[in-house]
Amino acid sequence: MSKKNFDIYLEFNYSKLNLAAFNKLNNQLEYYKEQSYKSYINSDQELNFDELQKLVETNIIEMERSIDEFVKDIYLIIETPQTMSIQLSVIKNNEGKNITKQDALYLIQDAKQQILKSHLDIRILHIIVENYVSDDVEYKFLPLEKNSKKFSISTSWSKSKVISLFPL
Questions:
Q1: If you ran DSSP here, which 8-state letter would residue 119 be given?
Q2: Of 130, 162, 102, which is closest to residue 20 (Cα–Cα)?
Q3: Which domains does the chain have, with CATH numbers?
Q4: What is d(CA 35, CA 12) in angstroms, rounded to the nearest whole number?
Q5: What pLDDT, on the 0 to 100 scale, is given for residue 2?
Q6: Residue 152 · residue 133 · CB < 8 Å
Q7: Phi and psi dihedrals of 163, rounded to 5?
Q8: Nearest CA to 158 among 104, 112, 92, 103?
Q9: Among 1-5, 56-60, 144-148, whose mean pLDDT is lowest?
Q10: Can you give the pLDDT at residue 166?
Q11: Which segments of 6-163 are extended strands (E)?
Q12: How do residues 21-53 score in pLDDT, each as one tens digit?
């Protein structure tokens, strides 16, 4: 049995398919592709699932070639009309110290608490760090071990109302 080096995410939102592979060793985004599938929706607003399946298979094969690893497990994210998105940036005075993974995790946790405090009836589906900012310089990756006075992250959160199927 071989150990997988990547976490694979497949997201369907209202009009796009997003496919991402994160390296488990260094937590870096190694592959990302965004592709529209609006052309697979007919005039009656019905989705052509056969064409969509071909699109997914083609993109997974392309990603496997790029990361040189077969995909076995995928984290599937499906956004529905009940799903909402929130963008939030949080900042930390880093006092000129090196940026650590714990600094980023702290800011994500802080953002999560702020969202949950103001939206009591939701469940957070996923969190995406859009970018990191160190002393007004924007990065798409976590700038570890960089000295920084001010450190911030910009996040996107997908949320959905909590629906209980059974009476409480």
A1: -
A2: 130
A3: 6-78 (3.30.420), 83-161 (3.30.1490.110)
A4: 10
A5: 60
A6: yes
A7: -115, 125
A8: 112
A9: 1-5
A10: 36
A11: 6-12, 16-23, 29-36, 75-78, 83-98, 122-134, 137-139, 147-161
A12: 988 888 788 999 988 877 766 666 666 678 878
